[in-house]
Specification:
By secondary structure, the protein is α+β, with helices and mostly antiparallel strands. The protein has three domains: 2-69, no CATH class; 73-101, no CATH class; 106-190, Nucleotidyltransferase, domain 5 (2-Layer Sandwich). The chain is built from seven helices and six strands; from the N terminus they run αβββαααβββααα. The protein has helices at residues 2-17, 60-67, 73-79, 94-104, 157-165, 168-176, 183-190; strands at 26-29, 32-36, 42-46, 118-124, 131-138, 144-152. The strands form two sheets. The protein has a three-stranded antiparallel beta sheet with strand order 1-2-3. The chain is elongated. The termini are far apart.
């Protein structure tokens, strides 16, 4: 009997989604919604507001306090607000730079890294999301200094090569360290 009631309850919830266009979200209770995929699979979305202690209408302090634990609005939106596309095209470490500018940015125009420091680089190709190439130096104590960035959206990997080749730091990375990328990208960076 209990199994039958549970099955009937699940069917009643599913019926709320039936007749709706696929992928249409239907709120069951505040903070809990269902949608049905094109393959007729029910997908539940549970938002923090379904928990009364976290519902901003009941307890606005929870959201204010919890938001402080996140370094950016985009990370909050992705994790707590369940917005998958949040943060696309966002500058890398933008919030950190704004918040801690005086502590982490060297503004002295005459500053140069020690020639003996390791040079590291990273490359992440993207067409929809921007391609990024970064250069960093690691001092003798292990402190890392980011000192160069290429950030460009909307191009195929081979289209970035002329711009990257013109950047003096890109060749330095290819000669002095291994990029965290595929061999094809490393060849693009070194000009091979």
């Amino acid at each position: 009997m209990a199994g039958r009631a549970k099955k009937n309850g699940r069917t009643a919830r599913a019926r709320r989604v039936e007749g709706k266009e696929r992928q249409t979200r239907v709120e069951i209770i505040p903070g809990l919604s269902l949608r049905q995929t094109s393959g007729e699979i029910l997908v539940a979305r549970l938002h923090y507001s379904a928990i009364p202690e976290r519902n901003p209408e009941i307890n606005p302090r929870w959201k204010q306090e919890e938001r402080r634990a996140y370094t950016s609005q985009a990370s909050w939106d992705r994790e707590q607000e369940i917005i998958d596309e949040a943060g696309g095209g966002e500058l890398i470490f933008a919030d950190v730079l704004v918040t801690h500018w005086k502590k982490i940015v060297i503004e002295d125009p005459y500053w140069r890294p020690d020639p003996g420091w390791e040079v590291e680089g990273g490359f992440d190709h993207g067409k929809t999301n921007p391609t990024c190439l970064i250069r960093a130096y690691k001092d003798f104590e292990g402190t890392i200094y980011f000192a160069g960035e290429y950030y460009q959206p909307g191009k195929e990997i081979w289209q970035h090569a002329p711009e990257i080749k013109r950047m003096p730091f890109a060749r330095n990375i290819a000669r002095r360290s291994s990029l965290g990328c595929t061999s094809g990208a490393a060849r693009t960076c070194s000009g091979s």
